[in-house]
Amino acid sequence: MQEEERFWLARSMALVRQVNGGWWIQRWLQIGMPMCLVVACALLLARSRGWEPSSVGREEALIPVVTVLLLLLMISFLAWLTARKKFISRDEGMVRLEVKLGLRGALSSAQAGVGKWPAVRAVGEVEAARFRWRLARVALPGLIAVLVLGASLAVPLGSTPVVAASAEEPAAWSQMEDWLETLEEEKIVDSESAADVQQQIDELRERPEKDWFSHRSLEAGDSLKESLAQTITAMGQDLEMAEQALASLEAAGGGAAIESLREGLAQQYQEAAESLKASSLKLDPNLLQQLAEIDPSQLQQLDLKALKELRERLRKSSGT
Questions:
Q1: Same structural domain for residues 133 and 192?
Q2: Are 205 and 173 in contact (CB under 8 A)?
Q3: End-to-end C-alpha distance for the chain, whole angstroms
Q4: Which of the chain's ends, N or C, has fewer CB atoms near its CB within 10 Å?
Q5: Contacts of 16 (CB under 8 A, 6+ apart)
Q6: Which residues of the chain have pLDDT under 70?
């Protein structure tokens, strides 16, 4: 390939890239500007309802980043799809150079193998045949879009009813505290064990108020509430099982009782007592000691009054 041919082919392709790129940028701005405004409105709406970029974790922050990248790719594809019908070919680029430089079809003829390629010209002279960028028309809409998006994240919002309501703590916290207070008043759980759960609630409450209703905070509170509810339910079932086993053993009597039945009830009581002892929410020390002192195999030798009081306490405790 001759030097002249390489020169003119390169100049024509540069012109083609400029023209096609200009059409693509124009369509990108026509599509992207409205979408950027929509995204900015969505961000303002989310912030007005309590969401803030600083309130999410690193993994959660990737979601809007990936969403924006996918949105940009979609806009770029749509811009190319709608602008390509106005794209020019290399031959059309040569015609543009011929018209602007007064070459009278010399480039097209040389490309067709009819004539010779014109002599190489100064780059500055050939560049004059290209289109001129109007930077203000190209850069200004993009700059406005960036500023609008930045403002939707940075501009402080005034206090709204939703933001004011966020000062109220999640209902799960106070509900758990009510459970613990009831259990302590009835002398069912150990105060130190209840204090450990209260400390976990206080740790949630010590977080900044703006983060109380974040996804991470609500998830932690719900998880703690669910765990506490399961523990209390299991404790109530074990207390009820122990009370029923004692009642059945007491009603069975002495020699009239079937030995295998007595052994089964005694085993049931022991399992309930062991489960209560291993619970993460510890029983009241006095109640736990009373359970430990009971030997189901020696039930007839126990103080009937004390046994009745223990059964009554277990029955009331299992109903909490």
A1: no
A2: yes
A3: 95
A4: N
A5: 87, 88, 89, 90, 92, 93
A6: 1, 53-61, 64, 123-124, 128, 158-167, 249-250, 252-259, 262, 295-320
Residue at a domain's end among 158, 180, 213: 158
Structural domain boundaries, residue 55: 3-158
Mark whether 176 and 87 lie in a shared domain.
no
Rounded to the nearest 5 degrees, what angle is found at the Cα of 200, between the Cα atoms of 198 and 202?
70
Structure tokens belonging to residue 42: 């969505």
Exposed e or buried b per residue across 265-298, where buried means at least 16 C-beta atoms within 10 angstroms of its C-beta: bbebbbebbebbeebebbbbeebbebbeebebee
3-class secondary-structure state, position 283: strand
Last residue in a domain, options 158, 186, 202:
158
Please give the model's pTM, rounded to 2 decimal places.
Answer: 0.45
Number of domain units in the chain: 2
